[in-house]
Design goal:
By secondary structure, this protein is of the alpha/beta class. Helix content is 36%, strand content 17%. It has helices at 5-17, 35-45, 53-66, 77-87, 105-112, 131-141, 173-182, 234-244, 268-279, 281-299, 330-342, 369-375; strands at 70-74, 95-99, 116-120, 142-145, 148-151, 158-164, 186-190, 198-199, 202-203, 210-214, 227-231, 305-307, 314-315, 321-325, 348-349, 378-381. Helix 7 (173-182) links the parallel strand 6 (158-164) and strand 7. The protein is globular and about 75 Å long. The structure holds pyridoxal-5'-phosphate.
Length: 387
Amino acid sequence: MPIRLSEKIEQIIRRAAGISHGPVVLHEPFFNGNERQYVADCIDTNWVSTVGKYVNLFEELISRTTGAKHAIATINGTAALHICLLLAGTRTGDEILTPALTFVAAANAISYCNAIPHFVDVSPLSMGICPEKLQAHLEKIAEVRDGECFNRETGRPIRAIVVMHTFGHPSHLDELKQIADRYALKFIEDAAEAIGSAYHGRHVGNHGLLSALSFNGNKTITTGGGGAILTNDDALAKRARHLTTTGKVVHPWEYFHDCVAYNYRLPNLNAALGCAQLEQLSDIVMKKRVLASRYKSEFSPVKELRFFTEMDGVKSNYWLNAIILNNPSIELRNGLLKHLNDAGIMARPVWNLMNRLPMYASCPAADLSASQQLEASLINIPSSPSF
Ligand SMILES: Cc1ncc(COP(=O)(O)O)c(C=O)c1O
C-alpha cells in the first residue's frame, strides 16, 4: 500500500530534525554562548532596566551586523514598527500599504497611528509583496498630486508601504523601491523575521527609510522580547531614540519631557541576552540553512508539494521553513496539520489573511488571489537551529 502523504511528511521532518520519537517543536531558542554570563552581570551590577552597557552594545552590534548606520533597541518589534510609521510621517486617516499575508503587528502599528491598512498581494516567489501586482493596483487606484500619493477611490493619502520579508525570505526590494519612489511612498521594511538575511549582498532592513526587527523568543535570535529600529538617517535616529524614551530631555536630574512619547526602550537585561545571541548569529543562520537544505533534498521526490526556497540573488535565514501543497485546499492542509500535531510535530498554518480579521475586514484591499492560494497551501514545519 502506498504510504500516505501525511506519514511521508512526518517521516521527513523526523529525519531532518534527527528526532525519531517524541515532540518536535516549531522553533526554540538556541542558547550556546555567553547568555548566562551577561545576564548574571546585569543582576550582579544592578543594571537591569533601560540604562546599561548592554543596551548600547546591543545597538552597536545590530548596526554592525545589518550595516545600518543607526539601531535603536525597543521592547518588541511591534513598538519598533509603530515608531517607524510615526517617523515616516503617518497621520490620522492615511492609508499604508502592507501585505495581507503577514503577522498582525504591522496592521496594528498602522492602527496605533490612526491610519488605515491597505492590503496588497504577495508574490509566490518571495512570499513578500508582488511588484507587478502592486504596480497594476496603484495604476488603477492611485495618483500623485504635489508630491503626495492619493487613493482616488477613498480620497485618502497613501503615505507609506511596509514591505515584509516572510519567514526570513527577502522580498523583491529593488522593484518595490522603484514603485515606492514612483508613487512618493515612504519605504519601511518589516524585517522582524529576517535578521541574518540579505538582498543582493546587503542585509535586509537596510534598504529603505526605516525598518523594524524583532527578537521575540520564537525568532532566529532572541532577547526574550525585544526589537530594533534601523535607519541611516541621523535626524530620524535621534527622533527615534527620543520617542522610545518617553520624550525625556537629557539632564542629570530634571524630569522634563517635551512631547507625548513612549516607554519603548529595551531593558539592559534583555539586551544582555541579545549581545550573547548576536555573537552566535552567523553560526545559527548556518545551522538553519543546513536544515533547510536537508529538507529541500528530502522533500524533492514528494510530488504533491514543494519546499519553499530562497530566490536567486538573495540569502535567506530560513527562519521558519515552509512546504507548499501543489493543490491549495484548506481541507487537505488541515488534515495534514492534524496528523502532524497528533504525532507530536508542531506544524502550523500561515496566518489568517489580515482582511479576514474582524477589525480589518473593511479596509481597502487589492486582488489577493496569491495570498489566498498560500493561505490554503502553506504549512510551516519545525525549524529550530538545534536540529
Ligand atoms: C512579520 C512580523 N512583524 C512584526 C512582528 C512583531 O514582533 P514582536 O512580536 O517582537 O512585537 C513579528 C513577530 O512577532 C512578525 O513576525
